[in-house]
Amino acid sequence: MEMRNVNWKKAFTLIEAIITMSIAVVVVAGVILAMTRGASNVQKGSFTMQACNQAAWISMWLRKDLTCARLAEVKMGTGASQWDGSNGNLEVPFLDKAAGKAVYELKKLGNGKALVRMVKGKERVLAREILHELKINRIAENDFKIEILMKDPAKHAKDFAWEGRIFPPCENSLAKYWKK
């Protein structure tokens, strides 16, 4: 019987090493790209959620105050039917005179603005540094339109715009049928 001299490869050739490294570089680049896109989407989503929550807070406080107010006495700064913060403070006197009034002011904070609500010396700051524009228009005596624009200070996300209406409180329609 004849024995053959068998040489087993014990190392990679240069071509095999280059191909392996190329595949590894492509895989690592794909992972890095996916992670950076994911992080960017998280930043955009985080701003959008924050802006949405702050717009809801602003509208909730305005709705709460305006539905409990002496609407004929609401002062929209120096403007008769529009308030945007540049024309003074928004003053909302409550029906209960002992409760006083809510005073809204737009303040410059950092790169943006914030809406400040003050009642009896207590201050609440809303939409800190992301509020860009806030307009309140009196459509009718008891009807208000609110427009809010918020911008991401880091400029990663698109602007967030919100618009809503506050109508006068109405009596419960079932109350007239309720027997006392």
Key descriptive features of the protein:
8-stranded antiparallel β-sheet; alpha+beta; 30% helix; single chain; 180 residues
Report the mean per-residue pLDDT as an integer.
83
**Unreliable runs, pLDDT <50, ≥5 residues?**
none
Largest sheet: 8 strands, antiparallel
Give the percentage of residues in beta strands. Answer: 25-35%
Sum up the overall morphology in one term.
rod-shaped
Helix count, DSSP H or I runs of 4 or more residues: 1
What is the total tally of β strands? 8
Name the structural class: alpha+beta
Roughly how many Å apart are the termini?
117 Å
Work out the count of structural domains: 1
Cα radius of gyration in angstroms: 31 Å
Work out the helicity level.
25-40%
Q: Helix and strand succession?
A: HEEEEEEEE
Description:
With 180 residues, the protein is of the alpha+beta class. The protein has one domain. It is built from 1 helix and 8 strands; from the N terminus they run H-E-E-E-E-E-E-E-E. Strands 1, 2, 3, 4, 5, 6, 7 and 8 form an 8-stranded antiparallel beta sheet that branches. Strand 6 and strand 7 form a beta hairpin. The N and C termini lie far apart (117 Å). 19% of the residues are buried.
Give the helix/strand layout.
Blueprint: H1 14-67, E1 75-76, E2 82-83, E3 90-93, E4 101-109, E5 112-119, E6 122-140, E7 143-150, E8 160-166
Antiparallel strand pairs: 1-3, 2-6, 3-4, 4-5, 5-6, 6-7, 7-8
